[in-house]
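Researcher: Please generate the 3D structure of the following complex. Treat every line as part of one assembly.
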Amino acid sequence: LIPPKDACSQSWTVQTGLRAAKVDAQGYGFYLAKDYDDLLDHPIAMGEFQIAQWQSNGTPHAMAIQGCIHEVDLERLQDDLQAICTSTIGLFEPKTKKAPFQSYLFLVNAVLAGYGGLEHRNSTALLCKRDQIPQMNTPLDESAYREFLGLCSHEYFHAWLVKRIQPKAFQPYQLDRRNHTRLLWLFEGFTSYYDDLQLLRSKRIDLKTYLKLVANNWNGILRGPGRLKQSLADSSFDAWTKYYQADENTPNAVVSYYGKGALLALGLDLKIRNFTNNRLSLDDIMRAIWHKHGVTLEGIAEDGLDEIVIQVIGSSFTKTWSEFKTRYIFGSEDIPIQRWLPNTIAAKPKSHSKLEKIKLQLGMRYTEVNGWLKVTHVLDGGAVQLAGLAPGDLLASINGERVTTARLDKVLTSLNPEQVLTMCFYRDDLEHECMTALDLNQLPDQFDLIPTA
Ligand SMILES: [Zn+2]
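Model: Done. Output below.
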């Protein structure tokens, strides 16, 4: 790496998890990568950073943040991240407490708007909003910061599940084509289950907050008609062509292997705890996968989980596991979390405001175009679909009142949940009028999760 020549880069440093061979104080110089794959797996950032550093179980960790103008509250970040990382190392290696890397680096690019992350073997590249990072003398939205910690927790978990435990189908990863596996519900879904769970276990959030996050995800899945049409195995296999090529029909045809995969992990965890009287949990499965496929780097076959589940839980679990797979992984049934909860947690039907109810019944997503309300998605079974509207239509009025994105809520609030609606809309250059009825049967199940103790 050669330093840029311009004067403003004098204060820059290099941040990367790549192994340094001969570098100067700023980090410029020679780095070593075993091969091309190893090089690709190490993002490199150059610029001005604010850096948090800590040890988790004796392994050095750092977070290098770019893009924050104000002084970052490094102490708070260090505290929170140390707790999360220590907890995750302890989950996989409760005895040795040994991390599978010599050091770990979180590279953070903080911007006005943006969110996401990519996992690597000993680092991660994260994108977030500046507002999500705690900074001195700057008000912090705690839930946005919690979301950022969830992202850190997610990508960190991938250092075990995805970067070391891998689908056999990804070994070697073929960079010139799409690589398919039916197991993304395990790799992304289980990671999504553990990302927030690790926030709870490391005491970064309380049980009430955790249950709210779980319920939010669950309710989101229950609102998507696609969950009844696509299985998690198919959602995984078709990720390249469906999940990552979303169109107007995606909510009706596709289920997220992240969201429903996380729910599946919760369901399996509850099943195992119940079956073994809390002697075992999903953690034991994760550790078994780790030792069989992660430590050895031996890819997991498409049906590779079967053997591990039965080995860990016992052959008496065979029938339960087989039914679980048929219904919720290869089938598209709803996962009945409400029936599997321990008696310390209750699932209650969510109470909605009148406006929320009506919006759920309509089943319409929209955007604003030149002052018009443009329909982007029409959900199966909703009042808007029954009325005959389609994505692309411009909704002009409901019951004679003009609707725009700004006025929609006001117009809807004046309706009641069992009312007949007359809707006027434009499709291309032609005006149409249609009638439909709001029906309480159009309401999807939605839950609140509440600690009973
Ligand atoms: Zn992920």
